[in-house]
Design brief:
Strand order of the largest sheet: 1-2-11-12-15-16-18
Number of helices: 2
Distance between the termini: 81 Å
Largest sheet: 7 strands, antiparallel
Strand content: over 45%
Radius of gyration: 27 Å
Oligomer: single chain
Number of domains: 1
Helix content: under 10%
Shape: elongated
Length: 269
């Protein structure tokens, strides 16, 4: 007779989110013909894993789920630069010592890919039938793994396009550079974890509504509005990948958010 043990999946973990949200909208100037409005919002969320049941941590790809850390914490070997004498890539071991040997030295010292602070601000003006508005959005305090630089700063992929930074590759003793010598292996490390905080000029829109007096002689059309807008105008960021706003924690050449131009006319009957 064989004994069997039944098992089942249970929600044994605990996670806490706490923070604050604030928003404000106001008319700075308001007259019969003219209105200038401004507004904005900001939110901050502090995330922490409180319990994982019978374990304290487990790895999940290039991140780690660990009690006491926020969800999405990066987990990687810490990059130590390039040895000027030999061109060897350098890393930090678990004790914080520099070594040219790559090993299982992963640490969770690089923050999270989930932004704790997000928000936006806007402004608009109205003058008779004319309207114009602008919107900015931002995210701060998070990092992403830019897997693109792993390939574009890697001599092993010289058959493809590489970054101009490769011109600074180590060649001789004494060279100070972040690009290791050509015959050394490029490993995954914190070298490719970058600050992905950004401010994006998200939208600008201009419109004009015809005066009612121009439509008074006919009864078919009640309103005519012309408009034009531009989406994703510009992004300010230190992130060197295609798009810091991408929700994938590892940038892998995903198509960036495009700039979009739109023009149109709304007619109401």
């Amino acid at each position: 007779m064989t004994n069997s043990v039944n098992s089942r999946d249970v929600n044994a973990g605990k996670m806490r989110n706490r923070g604050i949200e604030f928003s404000v909208n106001a008319d700075v100037i308001r007259t019969n013909d003219f209105t200038w409005s401004v507004g904005g919002n900001i939110s901050y969320n502090e995330n922490e894993i409180l319990s994982l049941g019978q374990v304290d941590e487990f790895e999940q790809g290039t991140s780690i789920i660990r009690k006491g850390l926020p969800l999405g914490s990066h987990y990687a070997v810490k990059w130590g630069g390039v040895d000027p004498a030999s061109g060897d890539p350098l890393y930090y071991d678990k004790e914080g010592n520099i070594t040219n040997k790559y090993g299982s030295y992963e640490v969770a010292d690089f923050g999270t890919f989930n932004p704790p602070t997000t928000g936006g601000f806007n402004t608009s003006i109205k003058y008779k039938g004319f309207e114009a508005s602008a919107l900015f959005i931002f995210a701060h305090g998070f990092k992403r793994y830019n897997n693109q630089t792993f390939f574009q700063e890697n001599p092993a992929f010289a058959q493809f396009n590489l970054l101009k930074k490769m011109k600074t590759i180590w060649r001789k003793p004494g060279d100070i550079t972040e690009i290791q010598r050509v015959d050394s292996k490029r490993e995954f490390s914190s070298k490719d974890i970058e600050d992905a905080s950004y401010l994006r000029f998200k939208n600008v829109k201009v419109s004009y509504t015809l005066p009612k007096s121009l439509l008074a002689k006919q009864k078919t059309i009640s309103n005519v509005k012309f408009y034009g807008q531009v989406e994703n105008i510009h992004t300010w960021t230190k992130f060197t990948g295609f798009d810091p706003e991408d929700d994938n924690n590892i940038a892998q050449y995903e198509y960036p958010t495009p700039i979009t131009y739109t023009m149109g006319i709304n007619i109401s009957f």
